[in-house]
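Page 37, continued from 36.
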């Protein structure tokens, strides 16, 4: 089976590629422009090949998608503040790029495309947990771009290829950077302040292993016709997250409260009924149960940049039900 992973050198992408490559019958092609991705985190071998290319280049996609069975479309400007800072790149990558992926998939006869959307499409919801039927009212450029891309996906799914939409909550795990958990962890390890923008935000965190399992089932299971939230269903305040990181690291870093940033969603908890019934995903009772793994990975990567744990999932327990074998 030939499988394409756009954005496959990114945080979520590299974990998905590792899982896909565990099946010796898979031929995986990673397409990434390395805007945020890192090749050194990919298990490049006989089953995984890498192409440094941009999904905004239609010609590249048309050629790469030939003979492809499934496309996991992860490539995007995936950072809220980054999207606000560069609106043109956010729109061209997230909206135009998704359109290009769908068109190339259709021309190549791809069977299914799995699109990773975001909880940001909801904006600040009226109530939580948020069901997939809630109105889409994004409050920032990133959420708007994902909502627009979803609409193209839904139009295309009426024809070919099949399209499955997953709306991801706040994913965490080794290799992530420039988001709240890796920023807090790195600051705590260095003894630097942890800045809370408001501090009262409620966030739904979901472990990378659960997300990879959801992607696999979305790509190879029965076709799901409606968007599906992938979250823990448990809200955690930013303040409690920061204090837990300080306790696990033994850090004496101070907590600094700064004014809330208006572009950020203040409260989100996913309704995971569809994820349970359609994907068979059972979120963990404690969404942050793997926080110690992330801390250890960041500690090792800071002290020994070329250590094998930095370029593999060595800190993830091998016997974990959603671990990588």
């Amino acid at each position: 089976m030939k499988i394409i992973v756009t954005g496959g050198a990114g945080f979520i992408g590299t974990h998905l590629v590792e899982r896909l490559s565990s099946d010796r019958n898979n031929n995986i092609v990673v397409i990434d422009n390395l805007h945020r991705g890192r090749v050194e985190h990919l298990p490049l071998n006989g089953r995984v090949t890498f192409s440094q290319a941009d999904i905004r280049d239609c010609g590249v996609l048309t050629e790469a998608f030939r003979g492809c069975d499934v496309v996991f479309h992860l490539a995007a400007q995936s950072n809220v503040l980054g999207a606000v800072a560069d609106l043109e790149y956010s729109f061209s990558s997230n909206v135009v790029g998704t359109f290009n992926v769908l068109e190339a998939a259709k021309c190549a006869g791809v069977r299914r495309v799995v699109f990773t959307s975001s909880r940001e499409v909801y904006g600040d919801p009226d109530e939580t947990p948020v069901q997939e039927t809630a109105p889409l009212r994004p409050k920032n450029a990133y959420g708007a771009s994902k909502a627009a891309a979803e609409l193209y996906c839904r139009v295309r799914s009426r024809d070919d290829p099949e399209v499955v939409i997953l709306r991801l909550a706040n994913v965490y795990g080794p290799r992530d950077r420039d988001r709240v958990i890796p920023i807090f962890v790195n600051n705590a390890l260095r003894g630097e302040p942890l800045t809370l923008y408001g501090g009262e935000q409620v966030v739904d965190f979901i472990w990378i292993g659960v997300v990879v399992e959801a992607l696999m089932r979305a790509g190879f299971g029965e076709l799901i016709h409606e968007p599906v939230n992938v979250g823990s269903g448990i809200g955690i305040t930013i303040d409690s997250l920061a204090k837990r990181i300080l306790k696990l690291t033994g850090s004496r870093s101070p907590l600094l409260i700064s004014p809330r940033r208006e572009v950020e969603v203040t409260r989100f908890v996913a309704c995971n009924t569809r994820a349970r019934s359609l994907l068979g995903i059972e979120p963990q009772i404690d969404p942050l149960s793997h926080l110690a793994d992330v801390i250890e990975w960041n500690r090792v990567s800071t002290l020994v940049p070329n250590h094998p744990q930095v370029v593999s999932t060595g800190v993830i327990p091998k016997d974990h039900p959603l671990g990588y074998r």
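The radius of gyration is 19 Å. Flag for discussion at group meeting. The chain has one domain: 2-310.
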